[in-house]
Amino acid sequence: MEMFNSSRETILNSIRSNLPKVEVGHPGIRVFQAPAGSPKATFEQRLKEAGGVAHEVRSSAEAESKLILLHPDAKVICSAVPEIAGTRRVEKVRDPHDLADVDVGVVRAQFGVAESGAVWLTQEDLVVDALGFLSQHLVVLLDPRQIVPEMHAAYRRVRLHETAFGCFMMGPSATADVEATLVHGAQGARSLNLFFLQEPKATP
Amino acid sequence: MSTAKQVDPAAAAELFIIHDQIHEPMHDRFLWATMQRRHAEAAAVPEWEELREIASKIKEHTLTHLDHYLEEFEANATKRGAHVHWAVDAADHNQIVYSILQDHGVTDLIKSKSMLQEECQMTPFLQQRGIKVIESDLGERIQQLDGQPPSHIVFPCIHKTREDVAQLFARTIGTDPNNEDPHFLTEEMRNNARPRFLAAGAGMTGGNFAIAETGTFMVCTNEGNADIGAAVPPLHIASVGIEKMIPRVEDMGVFLRLLARSAEGAPLTQYSSHFTGPRKGGELHIVLVDNGRSRRLGMPEFWHSLKCIRCGACMNTCPVYRRSGGLAYGATYSGPIGVILDPTFDEFKYSELPFHSSLCGSCSEVCPVKIDISDQILKWRRVMAGKGYLPLAKKLSFAVAGHVFAHPEEYHVVEQAAEPAMSYAPHFLLFNRTLNPWVRDRELPQPAKKSFREWYLANRSKHGNVQQ
């Protein structure tokens, strides 16, 4: 511990003796005008560019059948949402390694961001973080009323002081490391289907 | 002075260019295409230039109050249950990481891409001590299997063709050498990496930004490999440079709008992940690394380089980098940003780098945090000249130029003499491809019929006060 403390003091003292002799204040960030057009349409377009697909879904029954239609061969469907039962409840999973066999993970995102097509997912939404990354495919539910225009608005909604993990997820896993050719499913999810489905009202 | 050998980027670039007719043109084309996408994304954000200015100022503000923000970050991360360590230099960093791994009996480590861990030469250090270290980013893994460092800070193996990768995978992981399809190659590596993620005792990541207000650090990837490494093994260790601090959560909006657009012409990377304390059931260690950064803060002409957010736009736009390949720089950081960072680690070893530039200034124009990169390159040339690190050929011509520029009357004489000399000198003398590899694929401009001074005096002098 003492060794670490002495490194800490060495670094902080070195910084203090080297601080540039200029006073620069924080510039502040003004509110930028939201881009014209429907945030939902922009979100869908951006999601598509990122390799994801949006679907309109009116009920949990329709969500269930849509999921089966998209993933007819799925054996393990691990769900973190009440609308879709799946074959395994993530709340019962104790160890992230137990998610290695998941074909489809199902989660609900708190909100989406129009300018990128990304959704915000936290540890509380995923229940076990690895659900978002070990699952071969993802189905993400999003309330269409929960779309913010850009990242400034998005960061006003994240509550980093309340969650150990939060991720802006923009479509499925991707790489262009071999000859700049875009390939989905590098390490994380191979596909991301997004279901627009309103969140059920909380019972009073 | 360092005992390391000077790197010779011009000679290494020559090898890349003459190797065949495929690699260098492909490299140039891919990176220029990335730049075109960057321009399109930047143009679609009306407040783009304002965002660059704000980002630059936030970074300057943070760096001029760095002690304060580091302490705030440490306090908040600790409060959230993370273990925060401080590393003075690379050796300190590597030893801290090794101690944590030893304490947990970890023998298998899976890591995502971190330029800082490259800078610290962490992987060889751990491997020598019996730790198995696997890179999980596809490009980094390719480079690891090939025994090469990354050639680009965002696209580690952008200098390789699909044939190169197919041959490498055939040799190292036993795939079909004739299948060069990037989809096939990516799938093979996915299947190769999966069991390693599950077997690893620890996952390591870097950190793109660290938020003082909440003790959060964040990591951007496209593959989701950092997230698997953080979410599956019980232990997560992150290496974060002290210059990665930003003050508040709301500042992140500015930086994330700039980062991926500048890096790859996309609105974000696929995954932008925020870690605030350990995940449920996990343990988190954050190693804050100085390794020369605090000293750089005290260099009045060069401390702005600490604003860098590692997007690589300066590399993609650089005509010299695109034709040289990143490995030619012989350093952790290549391209224009490497030219101004590397000499702060070893002035002698990297003394040639500031001359590996055309000073066109494009890097400064595209930098999302407005680092005066090309001005700093010029200033580093002066430092190198002052230390006598110029190679002989440059020393001679610079000595002549220095004398001539100091005596304007002689400059006019030389200028007038040069034009006919260039017209009549045999082309092979002016443009000797054996003696000067750097110009092998270049043509000299035609000398102007009139010098600028002659033209100015004839056409513009009445409007100004130039004295004859």
Domain module tally of chain A: 1
As for the CATH topology of the largest domain in chain B, it is Rossmann fold
Number of helices of chain A: 6
Instruction: Please report which band the strand proportion of chain A falls in: under 5%, 5-15%, 15-25%, 25-35%, 35-45% or over 45%.
Output: 15-25%
**Average pLDDT figure of chain A:** 95
Task: Identify low-pLDDT runs of chain B.
Answer: 419-440, 464-468
Query: What is the beta-strand fraction of chain B?
Result: 5-15%
Question: What is the count of structural domains of chain B?
Answer: 3
Let me know the CATH homologous superfamily of the largest domain in chain B.
NagB/RpiA/CoA transferase-like
- CATH topology heading of chain A: Rossmann fold
By helix and strand content of chain A, what is the structural category?
Answer: alpha/beta
Per CATH, the superfamily of chain A is NagB/RpiA/CoA transferase-like
Walkthrough of the structure:
The complex is a heterodimer of chains A (204) and B (468). Chain A has helices at residues 2-18, 39-49, 60-70, 123-126, 131-134, 151-157, and strands at 53-56, 77-79, 88-89, 104-108, 111-113, 118-122, 137-142, 147-148, 165-169, 174-175, 183-184, 191-196. Chain A has 204 residues and is α/β, with parallel strands linked by helices. Chain A has a single domain (35-196), classed as Rossmann fold. In chain A, the strands form three sheets. Chain A has a six-stranded parallel beta sheet, covered by helices on one side. A four-stranded mixed beta sheet of chain A has the order 8-5-6-9. A two-stranded antiparallel sheet of chain A has the order 10-11. In chain A, a hairpin with a 7-residue loop joins strand 10 and strand 11 (183-184). Chain A is globular, with a radius of gyration of 21 Å. The N and C termini of chain A lie far apart (51 Å). The model of chain A has no long low-confidence stretch (mean pLDDT 95). With 468 residues, chain B is of the alpha/beta class. Chain B has three domains: 1-44 and 305-390, Fumarate Reductase Iron-sulfur Protein, Chain B, domain 2; 48-141 and 202-291, Rossmann fold; 408-463, no CATH class. Chain B is 50% helix and 10% strand. In chain B, the strands form two sheets. Chain B has a six-stranded parallel beta sheet, sandwiched between helices. Chain B has a four-stranded mixed beta sheet with strand order 8-5-6-9. In chain B, a hairpin with a 4-residue loop joins strand 5 (209-211) and strand 6. The chains are: A alpha/beta (204), B alpha/beta (468). The interface between A and B is large, with 74 and 97 residues. Strand 9 (165-169) of chain A pairs antiparallel with strand 9 (271-275) of chain B, so a sheet runs across the interface.
